[in-house]
Amino acid sequence: MARKYTYLQPTYYKEFRCSGDKCITNCCSYNWFISVDKETYKKYKAVKEPKEFAETLNKYVKRNRRAKSDAEYAKIIHDRNLSTICYDIVEDDKELEQIEIYNEAICPFQDKSGLCEIHKNLGYEGLCKTCKIYPRILNNIFGNYERSMNIGCEEVSKLLYKMKDGIAFEIVEEDEEFEGSVQTDLSKVKSKIFEYFDDIRLVCLQILQYRELSIDDRMILLSVFMFKIDEFETNNEYDKISNYIETFFDNIDMYKPLFDIETRREDVALKVIVEVNNYSRSKVGDKKLTLELKKIQKNLERALEKEYSTDENPLKKIGDKGIISSVYAGYRDKYNELMKDKEYFVENIFVNMFFISVYPFNNLQNIKECCTTFIWTYLYYKAILSAELSDKEEATEEILHMISTIFGRSYADQFKSLQRILKGMKECNMDNVAFLAVLIKSL
């Protein structure tokens, strides 16, 4: 009897279809590291015809001397070209045109219509595993496989936009094994806290989908829950976890003071978001996305006065003077107005990301650090969307999918930034629920 492969996946997974040359923010126009597995590398080296295609393969597919496995045996070298972008900024109530030169990174196998020359010449089977599976993701959770999709693809964003009732999950059986490598592997991890993995994650996902509260309040509630679980683990009080989980939703009212908090720290939040966005912008590659991120960057900078601290730790106190202009307050009001009936979409993005990244045990950080990085990721998304919507009359699907694609792609490049934020919060004694609540309410 043929083996069956079982996967836990979001129900939208089976509906995904690549839009090919109709894709607006093509994934081939992004500065990815595209690994080529050993088997496919040998296949490429054997290609002789068409001659021009064979020469392109030979020129742009190179051995990866740092490879640690056959899955990373080789890599595709991006074709980099200097390109210009033009955009307007407002200074002293005057609109000024800005021109910048940047390094545009494009896959050398992308043709003029946005399609793949490798697929055209060798068919689907000729693609390397990286290109075959994107945006699909596979995780191994204690020997059980989970698969999902990255929001960095606009078609995934469109699927999430359709799911007004929220993301649901299902278990499916298939004859074929998933082709790609495992992104997160918990199959050999041994720790007492992992005995509660399913129960903890289920409550986290329920909190994110708890529509009696706003998304902001859900993020605060999630912080409360995850920090408490981390406390139990730190103090070796595992016997208290089950009861806490069972009674958590019965005691939500006790956290209302956190939902009503009025203190704001836009100075800290915006300073960090601007720096993270600066880093992300350098990685985008695609001209359209680079231009959009540049506009967002300038809008966020306008929300800070020109003189602000450039301390190595951006979380240190910036000063007693008010450095936040009224600009960001306008952004926040516009966001709240235009996204009022689209909170379900933001919910879906972060439920999807929580599942993909195996929160609250992401990268085997402790639960407290997982929570903090997740909240900062939410703040980043909210800030760039607020800056984009600042001069819009409507949060159109096109805008939402474009921002979600930017977010999905740039988030993957933010690991170092998030680690720096974590370090800064610890140095300043800001790694606590109260401060996270303040930040959430600030943006």
Characterization of this structure:
- With 443 residues, the protein is α+β, with helices and mostly antiparallel strands.
- The longest helix is centred in the last third of the chain and has 23 residues.
- Helix content is 45%, strand content 14%.
- Among the domains are: 116 residues, no CATH class; 187 residues, no CATH class.
- The termini are far apart.
- It contains 17 helices and 10 strands.
- The strands form 3 sheets. The chain has a 5-stranded mixed sheet with strand order 9-1-8-7-10, covered by helices on one side. A 3-stranded antiparallel sheet has the order 2-4-3.
- A hairpin with a 2-residue loop joins strand 5 and strand 6.
- The protein is globular, with a radius of gyration of 23 Å.
